[in-house]
């Protein structure tokens, strides 16, 4: 009798292909998480599950999704931070929902269609970059706890996206395989994030007309409200020349702008640290290089880590640093407060990650 696994099924080519790969060795139970909107058209997903004998369940998580994801997104933008909301959603909503459902059915493992690999080392499970580097989504999973990682399967980690789409097409999922890649926020229903913010926070319209100043304090233009901008952005600034956002000052609804080169930084600090490989953190030296990604679609930049404080949290009696300073070998473009930075070792495996703190 095959062991069971609960697989997150969105209805896209990745999750359905994951079901096909997993069912070669496991008994797959599909779980679709209804995160937003009044009604979803699950016709194609239900037809595919019926065709491949995968039982499909639907869990309504809209209330938790709004509280844990959408509200956080809004508050972060109001605080002049640019969150990577997917890293929070995976660790605080998606994986916990899968595990909770699996526990009710006495099933040990859960799975997703993320492009990343899991590496087992003794009792630990570490996350490694996917074989398909262009599609790699390991960055999005860095917040997962040790327990969550130990119960997770990632069947697409060793596969290339083009091969996954071909496999889906060969197995009759023609319409799904032909779907275009989606890069937008899953809950904005085709709207831009600025449209979403205006619907959710109508008061932000009153921020239109705020000042854009240069580093010397001279007014050089206006903007449409600081929540609609992020570091490194140039579109939407009402200035006579092309300038880039260098800093947001929410207290006065002011944006400091400058030339593109002014948006590069060689240092940053991380807070809210999540450590995967504690032994490496305790043993590394200031001369040890790590690869650091400051956004999901980032090839990474080499740099060095320095501990800058401790708090009372412990893992196996070993302290987690309160914050970490990163010094890059080469300046990186537009590190954004609220975004995540993920640190990898020489085997492309996550060592730690954290939230980028505001630049002083």
Keywords for this entry:
360 residues; alpha+beta; five-stranded parallel sheet; 9 helices; 20 strands
Written description of the protein model:
The chain is of the alpha+beta class and 360 residues long. The protein is 25% helix and 31% strand. It is built from nine helices and 20 strands. A six-stranded antiparallel barrel has the order 13-18-15-14-19-20. Strands 3-2-1-4-7 form a five-stranded parallel sheet, with helices on both faces. Mean pLDDT is 92; it is low at 311-317.
- Span between termini: 59 Å
Mean pLDDT rating: 92
Total strands:
20
Largest sheet: 6 strands, antiparallel, barrel
In spatial order, strands of the major sheet run 13-18-15-14-19-20
Quickly give the structural class. Answer: alpha+beta
Per-chain topology:
Layout: E1 4-8, H1 13-22, E2 27-34, H2 43-51, E3 56-60, H3 62-78, H4 85-104, E4 109-111, E5 116-121, E6 124-129, H5 146-150, E7 152-153, H6 161-170, H7 174-177, H8 193-200, E8 210-213, E9 219-223, E10 238-239, E11 244-249, E12 254-258, E13 264-275, H9 278-283, E14 290-293, E15 301-307, E16 310-315, E17 318-321, E18 324-333, E19 340-344, E20 350-356
Helix pairs in contact: 1-6, 3-4
How would you sum up this structure in a few lines?
With 360 residues, the chain is α+β, with helices and mostly antiparallel strands.
